[in-house]
Amino acid sequence: MFYSLKNRLIVFFVVLLFVSFGTMSYLFFTESRSIIRSYIESSAFEKMDEYGSFVNMALVQIYDVSSIVFNSSTVKNWDNTLSDPALPAGEKMLANINLSQFLTQTTNNYSIVSSVTVYRQEGLWITADNQMMNDSSFMKEAWYDRFKTRGIQWVSAHKDPIELNRSKTFDVLSLLLPIGTFEPLQSKNMMKINVSSQFFLEPLSRIHLGEKGTIFLLDGQGDSVLGQHEYDSHPEAAKQMEAIRNSTQQNGVIYLENEAGAKDIMVYKKLKLNNWLLVGIVPEVDLYGNLYKLRTSLLIFGSLLLVGAIAAAIWLSHGISKPLSRLASGMRYVQMGDFDGAENRIPADEEVRNEVSYVTATFRNMVSRLRYHIKTEFELKLLKQQAEYKALLMQINPHFLFNTLELLSSLAMQHRTQDTVKVIEALGKMMRFSLKISNDLTPLEEELTYVRHYASILQIRFADRLNLSLEEDESLRSCVIPKFILQPLIENAVKYSFKEQAEAKVIVRVRREDQRLILTVADNGTGITLDLHQQLRAESLNSHFDHILKTRSEQIGLRNVLARCQLYYGNLFEFEIAPGELAGTSISLRLPIQGGSLDV
Q1: Which of 215, 307, 432, 543 is found 20 to 30 A from 346 (Cα to Cα)?
Q2: What's the pTM value of the predicted model, to 2 decimals?
């Protein structure tokens, strides 16, 4: 019995499982401490070095902006002009405008800077885009008081009223500097350079210490620069700030005990330019997450050993397991719809040697026949759909052409030569557009041109009795849509508007809503009945369009448009029929926005 395949596989699996778990246990306990230490010293410091370089680069640019403003002749001329009481108000206003334009140019040259604002002691502030105001409320701000009394130049993340006036609702980090002198108390003017705090937070948020660890950017007083409120939950870290600032070490690791009695690990690094600190705090327990990664690695190692056991089992049962494995793999490919992949996984056998070979060969033959039938059915369905679309498209032109020819005949009998010429020119342009049959789609701009020619014909026919307007979003002109979907709707709208009244009003509107193109035709006609609305809705869900080609209904134009849009867009097409703003009917086609060059 030991030599049976079953027993030999059991022995192999048992031996390899013992080897796998024994090796995994040994490596787990011997490598755990070294992984924690390596994680703290290498990963944390490396990430902090990268982010510190990023912060230093940003600070250099901010200081560059401040240097440009400080040394600018424009700023000096502005200060001299406003300080001279003999100069008229007009010259002072011109100086204010020149300063605003200079701040606009300076801000645009530095992408990281949100705005630069110059404040004057008399209560005037000036910023980019010609924004200026005599408003001394900024003098009551805490940042202004700290700057004037204590010389604190950096303001942590906060809401700036001037930014809010410019619809910039994000928090900003600010640098405050005097202008004309280096002493804040002696300066009449000062600058405030705003940078979005998100500029610093976004790369910082991508740095992680374990699963729950966080890195904070702190100023020289140990306060959060970027408004990271999570720092307030670590009061034990704040107690270490003075010792860290007085230390000569540029980076280090400190072990803390938090309020819950657990251990936290604090990693810090000093930045060079302005005495800021990068402080990372992570629970010691959280770092054991790396041990779980180690366990995963060991499980992978154990899995490789199991794969070896499986390989030995396959070698022992090669004659049965290999064909069955290929058959199962082929079935998975069939399940995904990849018939070529299924046939490649099951090679054709020249002869059937056993039951497994017979099943494999039968399955391969079944896959080949199934693929052939699916391909044939798909091609027939596609050809039928294309034929239905072409037939629906050809239904539009004759209907419109007969109506126009009747109009020309009437104009000729009335000897209205000029109107006849205008109708012929418009009809010629429309027919030229209609004969471009190389593509079923057209740019919206050309479709609207076609509609305008048609509208000119209607205007000659009905004169002052017809009021037809077109409202369009010019940014949508390059969108592509199926041909001739607006003209039938306009024709119906005009017809039903005249049905029970002497004057017709029609509005054609083209607009965007989210990522959809909305084409709306509204009239002052008799409206649409509920039964007809439900019938059109039911027809749009039906995939058979033969009845539309054979129908003699008055709604052939509308049905044709809905059918063609349904054929082209499928489930992406929606329409809405409702009472319109002109008390008649409003028909809206909701199409997905598509664009691109067309060979039409």
Answers
A1: 307
A2: 0.46
Cα separation, 324 vs 210, whole angstroms: 45
Q: How large is the angle between the packed helices 5-38 and 289-316, nearest 10 degrees? A: 160
Phi, psi of 209 (to 5 degrees): -115, 105
**Positive or negative CA dihedral for 268, 269, 273, 275?**
positive
d(CA 481, CA 140): 59
Look up tokens 């940014």; give the residue: 475
* Cβ-based neighbours of 23, under 8 Å, separated by 6 or more: 298, 301, 302
Bridge partners, residue 507, by sequence: 469, 522
Element containing residue 280 per DSSP (H, E): strand 277-283
Order of strands across the sheet that contains 214-218: 214-218, 277-283, 263-270, 251-257
Q: How many CA atoms lie within 13 A of 517 on its CB side?
A: 23
**Residues 269, 215 contacting (CB under 8 angstroms):** no
* pLDDT, position 598: 44
Has residue 453 got a pLDDT over 60?
A: yes
Place of tokens 């906060």: 158
Report the C-alpha gap between 354 and 261 in whole angstroms: 70
List, in order, residues 6 or more apart from 174 with CB less than 8 Å away: 143, 154, 155, 158, 160, 192, 193, 194, 195
Task: Name the residue among 300, 305, 314 with its Cα closest to residue 13.
Answer: 305
Pairing of strands 263-270, 277-283: antiparallel
Quick: pLDDT tens for 359-388.
666 766 776 677 666 656 544 454 444 544
Residue 111: pLDDT band (50, 70, 90) is confident
- Indicate the DSSP class of residue 249: -
Do residues 574 and 588 touch, judged by C-beta distance below 8 A? no
Number of C-beta neighbours around residue 546 at 10 A: 9
Is the pLDDT reported for residue 405 higher than 60? Answer: yes
- C-alpha 179/C-alpha 71 separation (Å) is 9
Cα–Cα distance measured from residue 211 to residue 282, given in angstroms and rounded to the nearest whole number? 8
What does the alpha-carbon distance between residue 222 and residue 244 come to, in Å, rounded to a whole number? 10
DSSP β-ladder status, 189-196 and 172-179: antiparallel
Q: Over the stretch 468-487, which tens digit does the pLDDT of each residue have? A: 999 998 888 889 998 888 88
Predicted pLDDT of residue 553: 43
Distance between CA 464 and CA 462 in Å, rounded? 6
Which letter does DSSP use for residue 582 in this model? Answer: T
- Per the listing, tokens 């109506």 go with 403
Region 200-205 average pLDDT? 85
CB atoms within 10 A of CB 147: 24
Work out the pLDDT band at 589, boundaries 50, 70, 90.
very high
Closest CA to 498 of 406, 399, 411, 584: 584
- Of 335 and 266, the one with more pLDDT: 266
Helix, strand, coil percentages, rounded to 5, for the chain: 60, 20, 25
Q: What angle do CA 444, 446, 452 make, to 5 degrees?
A: 105
Buried b (16+ CB within 10 A) or exposed e, 330-347: beebbeeeebebbbebbe
Place of tokens 């596989």: 9
- Are the C-beta atoms of 101 and 116 separated by less than 8 Å? no
Q: Of 510, 555, 561, 518, which is closest to residue 540 (Cα–Cα)?
A: 561
In contact, 391 and 403? CB cutoff 8 Å: no
- Mean pLDDT within 135-153: 88
